[in-house]
Amino acid sequence: DGGITQSPKYLFRKEGQNVTLSCEQNLNHDAMYWYRQDPGQGLRLIYYSQIVNDFQKGDIAEGYSVSREKKESFPLTVTSAQKNPTAFYLCASSVRARETQYFGPGTRLLVL
Amino acid sequence: KNQVEQSPQSLIILEGKNCTLQCNYTVSPFSNLRWYKQDTGRGPVSLTIMTFSENTKSNGRYTATLDADTKQSSLHITASQLSDSASYICVVSSGGGADGLTFGKGTHLIIQP
């Protein structure tokens, strides 16, 4: 079963806590992306990676961190520095940067 | 500043009817335009991708048009079905910026039986 997966589907964060969202793909894509989606807003880019061991900040990177140690995996950590983390987080991948993106099912993050 | 404006924000139509969603963009340079369908609580799925030289592209009951001169695109849905209820997102690629993409806010479409 090929594709891009995200886990968990729902995640709850307590004040001052770091949480990590998982994103895995078995499409052999080089590029991977993290987006944040808020109600009534377009998708906003948090981080992206064009190749293993390399990643770049997007438009709203503050309070977030990523790693790209394996081609298949691009986890996103929401740190305590992100003051308004409640949102729907989408991971995507593409064969190469700026080509058609394939999105995962998303993770909804809620703050307790 | 690159921008993508979609209209209407939301739309309700009866099952079986046709509808057209609009996308106006001010993105430069232009590389391509994509329409995505996003079901509630799910990730977006690509419907069509159009380059500068393409005027029309179809995917089943979905037909996208592009007028590169006026920087407008439309997505026409024919004989709507309940499963068409979703948000439709227009995305324009400029080939620049972090990911080279500018996302519209989407049109929320509801199909009523």
What does this structure look like?
The complex is a heterodimer of chains A (112) and B (113). Chain A is mainly beta and 112 residues long. Chain A contains no helices and 11 strands. Chain A has strands spanning 4-7, 10-13, 19-25, 31-37, 44-51, 54-57, 64-66, 76-78, 87-94, 102-103, 107-111. In chain A, the strands form 2 sheets. In chain A, strands 2, 4, 5, 6, 9, 10 and 11 form a 7-stranded mixed beta sheet that branches. In chain A, strands 1-3-8-7 form a 4-stranded antiparallel beta sheet, with no helix packed on it. In chain A, β9 and β10 form a beta hairpin. Chain B is an all-beta fold. Helices cover 0% and strands 58% of the residues of chain B. Chain B contains no helices and 11 strands. Chain B has strands at residues 3-7, 10-14, 19-26, 32-38, 45-51, 56-59, 62-67, 72-77, 86-93, 101-103, 107-112. In chain B, strands 2, 4, 5, 9, 10 and 11 form a 6-stranded mixed beta sheet that branches. Chain B has a 5-stranded antiparallel beta sheet with strand order 1-3-8-7-6, with no helix packed on it. Chain B starts with a strand and ends with a strand. The chains are: A mainly beta (112), B mainly beta (113). The interface between A and B is medium-sized, with 27 and 23 residues.
Distance between the termini of chain A: 34 Å
The SSE string of chain A, one letter per element, is EEEEEEEEEEE
Number of DSSP E strands of chain A: 11
Low-confidence stretches of chain B: none
What is the overall silhouette of chain A?
A: globular
Largest sheet of chain A, described in full? 7 strands, mixed
Structural class of chain A: mainly beta
Number of helices of chain B: 0
Q: What would the average pLDDT of chain B be, to the nearest integer?
A: 93
Extended strand count of chain B: 11
**What percent of residues of chain B are in strands?**
over 45%
